[in-house]
Design brief:
With 338 residues, the chain is an alpha/beta fold. The chain folds into 2 domains: 179 residues, Rossmann fold; 121 residues, Cytochrome-c3 hydrogenase, C-terminal domain (Cytochrome-c3 Hydrogenase, Chain A, domain 2, Irregular), CATH 4.10.480. The protein has a 5-stranded parallel sheet with strand order 2-1-3-4-5, with helices on both faces. Strand 3, helix 7 and strand 4 form a beta-alpha-beta unit.
């Protein structure tokens, strides 16, 4: 495939990304070609700030050994030691007002914290803000003492922002967004401010077990090798992501392929999912299922339970009717002669 993205229209570029026909190496090569055309001092600066985090949200990105070096070579990665208020007021003000700000993890809401104050200053002057990983992207489960990044920092400023959620976030999502920003500007976003080119289709629609889902061939216990994992709590029907196409571990596999139900880690409801938890089974209504077998699965199960109960009751009644009545003597021939 031609990796010179300058020859691609935005429509075709988005189409290729959504179809998974542009891999991580191709994205890196294409971005390199575009950035090499620019002068070194005009290449996009990136300020990447990390709050309190386990590191899982960027683990997928660093899974590609060449990726950190790639960013450092073709972007102006600002060293944390250089990021302070003096930087905003320095002669390098053009860089300060055109940088891409990446926020990862949880940040304290203490107004006296230095990082807290810096983030508020940088958000205002950033070209765009990328919230990387679930901690930064979704504020539903922010512990006490930390900021809801979206509500506390971004709702009241004009700076555009987008989210790349996941546990972890996929490296191709970040590379795709950076390519789009360099070539075409801000990508189209969904209602949760995720790039539509990665979060427009449900995982279930592109899963290798989709045909099993439609025909009612379900895995019923962990370890069973073939079949749809819906009955084991798979959140694929309500999760929008590109895992079946992008995969993980160097595009070698993904959760469902190794027998683990999708946990819906890129959705705002993760990990609770309305009280179901990561492995609670979705109802057919919540999953918006079109499969005849799945839509009637609950009805069939309820009907089976009713029939079973009715059978038990009928058996008990018939058994009681055919048994001798306790405390009474059965009539004999002598009784009849009398």
């Amino acid at each position: 495939m031609d990796t010179s993205f300058n020859h691609l229209t935005r429509r075709n570029f988005v189409k290729c990304l959504a179809a998974g026909s542009i891999s991580v190496p191709i994205l890196m090569k294409g971005l390199m070609q575009n950035l090499m055309a620019a002068e070194l001092d005009t290449r996009p600066p990136i300020i990447w700030l990390k709050g309190q985090t386990s590191g899982i949200h960027s683990a997928g990105i660093w899974n590609f050994p060449e990726f950190p070096g790639f960013l450092d070579r073709f972007f102006r990665i600002m060293p944390p030691s250089d990021i302070n208020r003096d930087f905003l007021q320095s002669d390098d003000s053009e860089v300060a007002s055109s940088h891409i700000l990446i926020l990862e993890g949880l940040f304290t809401d203490d107004p006296d914290d230095i990082l807290n104050a810096l983030i508020k200053d940088f958000v205002v002057v950033s070209r765009v803000v990328i919230l990387l990983g679930n901690d930064a992207a979704y504020g539903k489960h922010v512990p006490e003492g930390f900021m809801d990044t979206e509500r506390n920092l971004l709702h009241h400023v004009e700076t555009p922002y987008l989210k790349l959620p996941g546990a972890p976030a996929h490296p191709r999502h970040l590379l795709g967004v950076l390519n789009h920003l360099v070539l075409y500007g801000l990508p189209e976003l969904d209602i949760f401010r995720r790039p539509a080119l990665f979060f427009s289709d449900n995982i279930c629609e592109r899963c290798e077990y989709r045909s099993d889902f439609e025909t009612g061939h379900f895995v019923r216990y962990h370890g069973e090798k073939e079949g749809c994992l819906y009955l084991l709590g798979c959140k694929g029907p309500v999760t929008k992501n590109t895992c079946p196409i992008e995969k993980w571990n160097g595009t070698s596999s993904w959760c469902v392929a190794v027998g683990s139900p999708c946990t819906g880690c890129s959705e705002p409801a993760y990990p609770v999912h309305g009280g179901l938890g990561m492995y609670g089974q979705l109802s057919s209504r919540d999953a918006s299922i079109n499969s005849f077998f799945v839509r009637h699965l609950e009805t069939i199960a309820k009907g089976t339970a009713v029939l079973t109960a009715a059978g038990i009751a009928t058996h008990a009644i018939s058994k009681r009717a055919s048994s001798p009545i306790k405390g009474q003597r059965m009539p004999t021939l002598e009784d009849e002669d009398e």
